[in-house]
Amino acid sequence: MILSMIIAIDGPAASGKSTVAREVAKRLGFKYIDTGAMYRAVTWKALRDKVDISSEDALTVLARHAEITISELEDTRYAVTIDGEDVTEAIREPKVSAAVSSVAKLPGVRATLVKKQQGYADIYPNMVVEGRDIGTAVFPDADIKIYLQALPGERAKRRQRELKEKGHRIEVVSVERDILKRDKTDSTRATGPLAKAADAYVVDTTEKTIGQVVQEIIGLAKKS
Predict the structure, then answer these.
(1) pTM (2 d.p.)
(2) Which residues contact residue 81 at a Cβ distance below 8 angstroms, ignoring those fewer than 6 apart?
(3) CATH number for the domain including 40?
(4) pLDDT by residue (tens digit) across 97-111?
(5) Residue 189 C-beta-side C-alpha neighbours within 13 Å
(6) Please, which pLDDT band fits residue 73 given cuts at 50, 70 and 90?
(7) Of these four, 14, 26, 94, 128, which has the most CB atoms within 10 Å of its CB?
(8) From CA 221, how far away is CA 28, in angstroms rounded?
(9) What's the domain range around 189?
């Protein structure tokens, strides 16, 4: 029986983090935390309320006062709300994806949301937390650190399929261009950049099924 464990899963966009993390959390009975959804929720609210997304002060205040929840539904589905509004689908819209890196790179916003994320550890003894700086900045002492990666072309195809399922039609070339742009923004930002922790276990998901990756991580958890 696992008494207390934090599993940190990092990686670039469309590397499989969310799907894998949700399934790992479900199978182990852990709390699932999608930190990316938190930044997306803040971005969505800023766009909806016409807050200047280049204003660090305004966005930091918004993030500080926002009540963001990630609730488990059935299967491996989760609902995301901000200040009581269900934004599960809305935060995945292209306009939010296009703006979230600009919001997430602001030091004030990151410091505010990282504090909220770290606070979950006081509530949930067992968590699977996914994002881009979990093993390096949010939970540097996590019991298990995973870094997922995949070739840009494969990641673009995955993201295109997700968008198509939601009714958005976009060429895979455009998706790959956007992904590479976000990779650069996320990995070069001054605060909490996308990076592989020195002690992270690297999993290339390009040619692996979700089930294979999940089983690999669960195996590491059980060994620990």
Answers:
(1) 0.92
(2) 41, 67, 68, 69, 71, 87, 88
(3) 3.40.50.300
(4) 889 999 999 999 999
(5) 23
(6) confident
(7) 128
(8) 9
(9) 5-223
